[in-house]
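<context>
A single protein, sequence plus fold
<entry> Chain with its tokenised backbone below
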Amino acid sequence: MKFWELTSAFREEPDILAKVLGQDKWRKYIEYYERLDEIIRDQQREILDGELPFELCYEVAEKSKKEFWLAYEKQPQVLYSYKASIESLERLLASEVLVRFGGNKIEEALECSYTNVYSKQLNGGAEVITSFNLTSVGLLSVIRTEESKILDNSILSTADKELSWVVLNEAKMVVDPYEAYKKLYAQNRQNIRHYILKGVNHCEKPELGKVLHIIT
């Protein structure tokens, strides 16, 4: 995500931008943000078009209150910044849009009300959408595949094979209220499912947005 895209997409949430960028690790960017009007006026493209670290963008998106709606059965899929009058919609948070489609689509959807989006090519792999360490069940990961679900005891591996995880089983989600059920239904229609994983000789979570190899 570029600096201008981040500051444009979340300009209605300046407190969030200031809080995230104000951390010591992003000190360079808070200085840019405080001079934003000047930078835009002078069209300092080296700053405006500078690519930001994914971690920074995710921190902002995760704190954002913005919501989006994905028409997941359209071809191509369409991301709306409002709840369109369409039957098959998945409600997405800004952080989910960032991981699945890229931060530029957040900005485009907000500026144009909607935008076409394209899922990553998986080539038989598994895309990690999000992961949680839950006390009751362990490592729960939301993962998208191309067709069928991942079999129990399969291995998910990074491209460099440095990290891998065993798929213990698909988590059986019992959800309520109805909006949560609709979210789960929409995900299943897109081959997005919840799995319980266990790291092989490590306790790391799989990196968000990465496509892992599936070894059955």
Remarks:
- The chain has two domains: 3-117, 126-215.
- The chain has nine helices and ten strands.
- The chain has a mean pLDDT of 95.
